[in-house]
């Protein structure tokens, strides 16, 4: 039995990334209904909005779903309480110390998964008592690891040292990518960019369309002094690079970033001044599809590629 499908009680070992401004209840419930694990992205929601999305998700699916919580947000205690009140059974934590909330959440009967970008933090997450880890290579969109460790190298390094289930993330959007991750030692995969460009994603249509136009080399990891993030190279990104030429202070970078850049870009569709977070794998995303089409395509390609490899011998 697959460790991830068993842990979450789902059909396929496919987890949807809990992306800010993309992962509302419509996306999460659609992924769960299609056989994966949908996640509501709490990072872009005020507490009352999160509560409403959880309640709507419960009505839209009878299947398991979870909430992703970036722990760097100031209202995390209120978010945790809402999750407990609404009886959410699965929580993915990120951008913080897993020791802070893991024991408390597990005492409430919640399955806890932590997102990491290095072997060091995977071991810390395991020590904290999480039920599984997501190991995310720096190919991924959005906030990322400073060390720029690729998925191809990160997954086997983490697999070698941990005993708990391992979910691979970063640069995975197809069945072949899923098969490769499992061959490297992962028990399942988490996909963000592919689901961002879905019908059910809550992102602005203009952002979805720019994902389709994104090619190799059109994204880059930047703003490491604040929180490393992979962005599409638009005017805002170019302004950041121009500021770097002056050897800016952290405060100057914060001033340029300002507030609401991610919301402006991904939710409101400002492709010029907004922060456009997407992974390198966007270069092979060519259509906006329904979640059901995406999941079916991934599973079909996975099985085809698996059978294809069985014909190869050396």
CATH fold description of the largest domain:
TIM Barrel
Query: Strand order across the biggest sheet?
Result: 1-9-8-6-5-4-3-2
Question: How many β strands by DSSP?
Answer: 11
Helix/strand structural class:
alpha/beta
Low-confidence stretches: none
Q: What is the rounded distance between the termini?
A: 29 Å
User: What share of the residues lie within helices?
Assistant: 40-55%
**How many domain modules?**
2
Total of helices? 14
Per CATH, the superfamily of the largest domain is: Aldolase class I
Structure report:
This protein is α/β, with parallel strands linked by helices and 314 residues long. The chain has helices at residues 3-8, 25-33, 47-60, 76-85, 102-107, 119-128, 151-161, 175-183, 193-196, 205-213, 235-244, 250-257, 261-267, 291-309; strands spanning 14-16, 38-41, 65-70, 90-94, 111-116, 132-136, 142-143, 166-169, 188-191, 219-222, 229-232. The chain has an 8-stranded parallel sheet. It starts with a helix and ends in a 5-residue tail after the last helix. The model has no long low-confidence stretch (mean pLDDT 95).
TL;DR of this structure?
With 314 residues, the protein is α/β, with parallel strands linked by helices. The protein contains 14 helices and 11 strands.
Structural key phrases:
alpha/beta; 11 strands; TIM Barrel; 42% helix; 14 helices
List the helices and strands and how they pair.
Elements: H1 3-8, E1 14-16, H2 25-33, E2 38-41, H3 47-60, E3 65-70, H4 76-85, E4 90-94, H5 102-107, E5 111-116, H6 119-128, E6 132-136, E7 142-143, H7 151-161, E8 166-169, H8 175-183, E9 188-191, H9 193-196, H10 205-213, E10 219-222, E11 229-232, H11 235-244, H12 250-257, H13 261-267, H14 291-309
Parallel strand pairs: 1-9, 2-3, 3-4, 4-5, 5-6, 6-8, 8-9
Antiparallel strand pairs: 7-11, 10-11
Helix pairs in contact: 2-3, 3-4, 8-14
């Amino acid at each position: 039995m697959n460790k991830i499908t068993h842990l979450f009680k789902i059909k396929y070992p496919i987890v949807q990334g809990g992306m800010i401004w993309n992962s509302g209840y419509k996306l999460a419930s659609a992924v769960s209904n299609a056989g994966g694990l949908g996640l509501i992205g709490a990072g872009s929601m005020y507490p009352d909005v999160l509560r409403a999305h959880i309640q709507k998700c419960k009505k839209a699916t009878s299947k398991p779903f979870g909430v992703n919580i970036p722990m760097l947000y100031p209202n995390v205690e209120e978010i945790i309480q809402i999750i407990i009140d609404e009886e959410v059974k699965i929580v993915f934590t990120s951008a913080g110390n897993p020791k802070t909330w893991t024991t408390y959440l597990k005492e409430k009967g919640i399955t806890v998964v932590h997102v990491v970008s290095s072997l060091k933090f995977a071991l810390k997450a395991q020590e904290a008592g999480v039920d599984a880890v997501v190991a995310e290579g720096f190919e991924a969109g959005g906030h990322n690891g400073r060390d720029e460790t690729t998925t191809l190298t990160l997954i086997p390094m983490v697999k070698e040292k941990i005993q708990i289930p391992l979910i691979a993330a970063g640069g995975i959007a197809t069945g072949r990518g899923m098969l490769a991750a499992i061959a490297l030692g992962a028990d399942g995969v988490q996909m963000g960019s592919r689901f961002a460009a879905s019908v059910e994603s809550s992102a602005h249509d203009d952002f979805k369309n720019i994902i389709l136009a994104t090619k190799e080399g059109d994204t880059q990891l930047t703003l490491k002094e604040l929180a490393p993030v992979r962005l599409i190279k638009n005017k805002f990104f170019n302004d950041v690079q121009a500021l770097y030429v002056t050897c800016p202070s952290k405060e100057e970078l914060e001033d340029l970033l300002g507030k609401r850049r991610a919301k402006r870009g991904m939710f409101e569709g400002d492709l010029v001044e907004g922060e456009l977070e997407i992974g390198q794998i966007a270069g092979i995303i060519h259509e906006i599809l329904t979640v059901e089409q995406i999941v079916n395509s991934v599973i079909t390609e996975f099985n085809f590629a698996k059978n294809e490899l069985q014909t190869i011998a050396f």
